[in-house]
Prior knowledge:
Chains A, B, C, D: InterPro entries: Arginosuc_syn_C, Arginosuc_syn_N, Arginosuc_synth, Arginosuc_synth_CS, Arginosuc_synth_type_1_subfam, AS_cat/multimer_dom_body, Rossmann-like_a/b/a_fold. The structure is a homotetramer. By secondary structure, chain A is α/β, with parallel strands linked by helices.
Amino acid sequence: MSDVRKVVLAYSGGLDTSVILKWLQDTYRCEVVTFTADLGQGEELEPARQKALALGIKPENIFIDDLRETFVRDFVFPMFRANAIYEGEYLLGTSIARPLIAKRQIEIARATGADAVAHGATGKGNDQVRFELGYYALMPEIKVIAPWREWDLNSREKLLAYAEKHGIPIEQKHREGGAPYSMDANLLHISYEGRHLEDPTAEPEASMWRWTVAPEEAPDTPEYVELTFEKGDLVAIDGERMRPHELLAKLNELGGKHGVGRLDLVENRYVGMKSRGCYETPGGTILLKAHRAIESITLDREVAHLKDDLMPRYAALIYNGYWFSPERQALQALIDFTQQTVNGWVRVKLYKGSVMVVARDSATDSLFDPTIATFEDDRGAYNQKDAEGFIRLNSLRLRIAAKLAAKRRR
Amino acid sequence: MSDVRKVVLAYSGGLDTSVILKWLQDTYRCEVVTFTADLGQGEELEPARQKALALGIKPENIFIDDLRETFVRDFVFPMFRANAIYEGEYLLGTSIARPLIAKRQIEIARATGADAVAHGATGKGNDQVRFELGYYALMPEIKVIAPWREWDLNSREKLLAYAEKHGIPIEQKHREGGAPYSMDANLLHISYEGRHLEDPTAEPEASMWRWTVAPEEAPDTPEYVELTFEKGDLVAIDGERMRPHELLAKLNELGGKHGVGRLDLVENRYVGMKSRGCYETPGGTILLKAHRAIESITLDREVAHLKDDLMPRYAALIYNGYWFSPERQALQALIDFTQQTVNGWVRVKLYKGSVMVVARDSATDSLFDPTIATFEDDRGAYNQKDAEGFIRLNSLRLRIAAKLAAKRRR
Amino acid sequence: MSDVRKVVLAYSGGLDTSVILKWLQDTYRCEVVTFTADLGQGEELEPARQKALALGIKPENIFIDDLRETFVRDFVFPMFRANAIYEGEYLLGTSIARPLIAKRQIEIARATGADAVAHGATGKGNDQVRFELGYYALMPEIKVIAPWREWDLNSREKLLAYAEKHGIPIEQKHREGGAPYSMDANLLHISYEGRHLEDPTAEPEASMWRWTVAPEEAPDTPEYVELTFEKGDLVAIDGERMRPHELLAKLNELGGKHGVGRLDLVENRYVGMKSRGCYETPGGTILLKAHRAIESITLDREVAHLKDDLMPRYAALIYNGYWFSPERQALQALIDFTQQTVNGWVRVKLYKGSVMVVARDSATDSLFDPTIATFEDDRGAYNQKDAEGFIRLNSLRLRIAAKLAAKRRR
Amino acid sequence: MSDVRKVVLAYSGGLDTSVILKWLQDTYRCEVVTFTADLGQGEELEPARQKALALGIKPENIFIDDLRETFVRDFVFPMFRANAIYEGEYLLGTSIARPLIAKRQIEIARATGADAVAHGATGKGNDQVRFELGYYALMPEIKVIAPWREWDLNSREKLLAYAEKHGIPIEQKHREGGAPYSMDANLLHISYEGRHLEDPTAEPEASMWRWTVAPEEAPDTPEYVELTFEKGDLVAIDGERMRPHELLAKLNELGGKHGVGRLDLVENRYVGMKSRGCYETPGGTILLKAHRAIESITLDREVAHLKDDLMPRYAALIYNGYWFSPERQALQALIDFTQQTVNGWVRVKLYKGSVMVVARDSATDSLFDPTIATFEDDRGAYNQKDAEGFIRLNSLRLRIAAKLAAKRRR
């Protein structure tokens, strides 16, 4: 056990991180600094302060920050410029939040002179990687403590016994078996893993979903929403400009009301195993669809295809925790370069779980030219005869090969 | 005008290709062979025979083929093994049918000793490219006639006047202004382009859609469907084995009933312009979702990512008409190699326009290992301590760079 | 034949473009503006002025520009940041010069109020595409005249007869059959195509090569050269800072002396055919090798791999003439982003046709850390035990699959 | 320390693996099986048997196999079909040998009922990863012992002391400081790392290189060699058919004589650090050049580009040790598919360190069509006018964007 003087713990105020807090004090005999972030998870944060104080943390060692605007502006929005989806389905809601938490922990470590950081992620998941790659990229000499990989409290019973023994308050739900799922929430999504979901043939219980109504319960009338984009980022909803996190919160409200954004999948973790997860990403689902639509009229074809070719790689980088890597930054430079012309608006229709784009336009950057595309007489905007040469030369290599093949058959 | 002796025309029996038939006879003074394919577009084909006869085609020069099974087994299914989507949205329903038509035309040309082929696609679209790349790849010396690029019948009025003059029967709808949209249908989809849709801000009229009910009109009760896959191909629905085209027809019926598979987008054509299109792909939408789900438990992570990285390229090849190219075949060799283990079943829930995967399993090939993924005690199946070394080495390059950056700042 | 008022011709002063000049005057009855560029091809340009005057071009319509510095700084160097090679071998010497010529022609067209541009590239090659894509990207309404695709002077005899008839001076070499090869030269390379080379089994004659001595004739003593890089660009040779084109000229001199940079290959043209070409790129060959070497110690691994993955695509864009396309610019944004840390020096050894890197270092940006890499005791800089977890988790998916395969076999 | 009954050790007979042998016996108290492979490293293997016997290994536990043919046919040649190069330079000589050793070790483990395998690679290098990924992919339950990560013999002194103490014979060279470099050799290459080379600014000593003469010492007369390929594999040299390993040995002899294939570079290891390495790959350097040349006339352009795009990924997989992974196999399926037409011959010229292709042809599969490529009159094989339409449509998106940009500027 290495020597630790002061550790900054990512602290939610829940049972697990409270036990970690105590365990750090006992095991490392070090000063603990707690850091609790508001990323829009929809929980009160002040109770975390009270719990930390009760566990002996000095007031000046308790950090509670509202990171919602930063989260959406500097992490979620840049990622959506790339249309990032992991494995064809997952919108990376948890993945994109971890680097921000890591970054803030390191800032606090520097501010408080701490020499270590700790988190409550297990040794089987992706989050440990995302936290720790962030720590190391920002402060390579930092000492990282991952209690779930170190201690022997590897069952719920042992954890509760430890809490009991050390006077950590245990809510009734924990005594009754704890949350039925492992959950993570922020402004972009809420996720569910574990327990019942570990059987990939079992449909999630209706009661699991928290942010969206069931499509069956959604309004019988569709709702139209207009999203305005500037340089690839959402800036207004139905004409009303808001700050980034307010926009995403508004989209969540709209999507949630219409049952948009539920997802049930088996994904491949970076640590090498497959895992079942369920997600609700109401606002993000709308945003992705609309962003693709505004790009469809403002991006050049080859630029769009280049982005599509690189997207899975970009998404995997974020999934795997490489937000602060130079390769993510290089890809971001390319992506951001392309978004200069992504200005305009998109109208979507929300209805019982689906999002459909029905209109899109750009006053300044539309590359859609109806005078060329028209089935009607285009008055010479496009010379159909050009197509013959285009096809003749594009087929030249195929024709040469076919002639050779014919000769070979003879 | 080059010398043509006998031409095989892709003939639908409609007004346009009837005018083309006549125009070919008049312009090239050549024998015309008509070819009409059943690709599941849902139209009677026998009327095409009567029309061809009426236009003077010899009975032995009229070819009407049911290509539905070939279409789905040898074109649609191989494409779905790749999870192909063009520009994030389009399921390539028209693109995948053209090569088969081209192939059959060439076979008929060989069988009848024809020296030319003709099609009814315009000089602005993708279909001319898809047809002609197919022709050239299969019979490089063939003469290709694309009347829309040659003649001067470049308005509806001129076309009708020509038909009138040559005694080609004109249905009432044409006199009233013709179809409100340009449509193309086959077992995979129906597409709409032109007219009203040329304004990308105009939502399609409700009356346009033909294959799917509006989600608003779909049943109030969700329906569960189970799809069984073998080597990446659908082989049974709800346990009932059917032939490929029967399976896709069944999925279309199910999807259509639940309003699944409508799409409204602006896409980038190979000839260089953007165009608005609307599509209904009810069965294909379900199939893609389910195929990804069965892959999610049977494919290795890196294989899945490799496929994802290559998918946009594969999709663009098909969109652009390169089905018979060696690069498509090389990619297909890779894709087919990966599908050996893609065996199992997927359960989806259809409801008012949405498809949700709720369960998936494989008796023989599941790589999902609950003993490793579990949040509970795994009895040593996975050593959480391994994660530390994994993260330490994955971060090594980041740590070295961060140390250098810190030194540089000093 | 469309109406043309004034045309800017890319004019070398040679026989072919002199005939074109005359043909343009006769055929289009338009004013001709000549543009002759010094790209370091090593020819006197003033004779071109005399010839243009003799053909009746007004003095104010004759443009002769020294573009050497721009060429190397704004075209060659950005391309070398990408380590661009086409089809594993070709350093893109001709490809990279065409966009600059096109750009300058368009500038002159704007300055002189011309409504057309013309070039002397044939209808079979890549250069026509590179010129014209440049023209269209920079001035979409410009009229492009490509005489080789229009006229009927499609044999050497007809061309000479035309020249004779119109009083265009014909050098003796043309009367004797013309140049044995089609050549193109600029500061980056000289290329040879055609004639004897059209047989891909025929070795080029020793007399063909112009810029490099035969390795057999090169000095018997190796020469060491040190190249200094800043942000990925060469800035000094053996410690002497020079301007970009001076540096490349110096490298050409060094490489030429030691027989470096000869290449004989069959390449795939954009228009669809294969063609044999020979190239001498003495300076470029040294530069590429050295640039990779300085990157080897200053670039992050994943950034380097990302660049390698994208390089063939970038090279094909340049080969095909898409320098002014948004996708090339987006890739350049990524590439340039990565070059911020590419600072340092490289020592190479030149000897009888080969370039070998023997040393490289960076005072500010070396990521090479001997304390970690050492085979000797590293005093704890690297914990070898980390490798176990790294391997265990990287193999997890392979182990799961192998277990399943074993179970299946049973 | 886990329980081990019998371990198969990759045993070279040298000091290090002899110490490991003894250490395994002492530490694990287990039976040791030795495996020594002839991969063409050019060393006698029988001394390894004597040493093993002397260290108490039972005769039936000593395996000495000649794997040269398998190595070249099933590992080297498939890799060369891909034109694999790591980081633009390295021909993967060590990387490609490790999987075969791992495979044979596992076969021996199965044959002898061993429950563990061991190797002599350190915890800092790539080889540990390559060995162990192989072991785990082929026998996931195997116990892996990597002594260099476990023991405390982490200096040369301790190792010698251990050998001395246990009666392991120590050659004089070890007493004098050991080999000046860490070396690895097989039929494809010999590599040098460590010591003097740990300074990336220090040129290797002339005495280091073992397989190639210095270019300065190479013959003054160039030598021409003709290589014949079938399905992408070398089958004959100068018309003489030989077995794969004989062919590679012959190429090594030719390359070595002419000073071909020396390389000095800094590479990025999979474990995260940069390291300096020098390599001699005489035959491989010739083979790669020739393979690209035969592909240049027999492969379709887009297939060649697809291979180029995927090559760095394939090379990294091999470098990182993923030979037995499904993603490498999927890529191989694509690559092998493309090689069906790669038949023909290539003539290269070897001279003082350089390899130059001077001729190439294929009687059956050449796609080079001189009637089309010719600068002379092609009698209509190619219609130059086609190029206009080709360029017009390829530039359409650029023209639309340029028009929009012009409008925006106004």
